[in-house]
Write a structure and sequence with these properties.
The chain is an alpha/beta fold and 128 residues long. The chain has five helices and five strands. α1 links the parallel β1 and β2. The protein starts with a strand and ends with a helix.
């Protein structure tokens, strides 16, 4: 079994997220998503986030055919989770380089180029 790991807040799920998860599934047999807890999202994104609770975000991710498992973590980075899972591949979005990805010493890193025009922050800014 080839395990692929990715992580994020996945606050408002959009096409860019789905394309990332589909890419993860193309690389292995099991996709594990590290999901930032509500407290972790607030520390990273500010007091107005997350928009959806960690339970709702987890449920949504688990409902996707590209995701096999979702693990909530409370730290600012998923390093401890990655060290516990020991995936074969870690996938991150295009604003990273392999050497800046947390856990790059544990597993091979693949960078997924962002799908232009999709961003949770941009979506929230457009909402009334």
């Amino acid at each position: 079994m080839k395990v692929v790991f990715t992580n994020g807040c996945f606050d408002i799920l959009h096409r860019g997220h789905i394309e990332l998860l589909r890419y993860c599934k193309s690389l292995g047999t099991k996709v594990v998503v590290g999901l930032n807890s509500d407290d972790s999202v607030s520390r990273l994104k500010g007091d107005s986030r997350p928009y959806f609770s960690q339970e709702d975000r987890k449920f949504t991710l688990e409902s996707l055919r590209y995701v096999d498992e979702v693990c909530i973590f409370d730290e600012d980075t998923p390093l401890r989770l990655i060290q516990n899972i020991i995936p074969d591949v870690i996938v991150k979005g295009g604003d990273y380089t392999p050497d800046t990805v947390v856990g790059n010493e544990v597993a091979h890193v693949e960078i997924f180029n962002f799908v232009d025009g999709y961003s949770t922050t941009n979506i929230l800014e457009k909402m009334p």
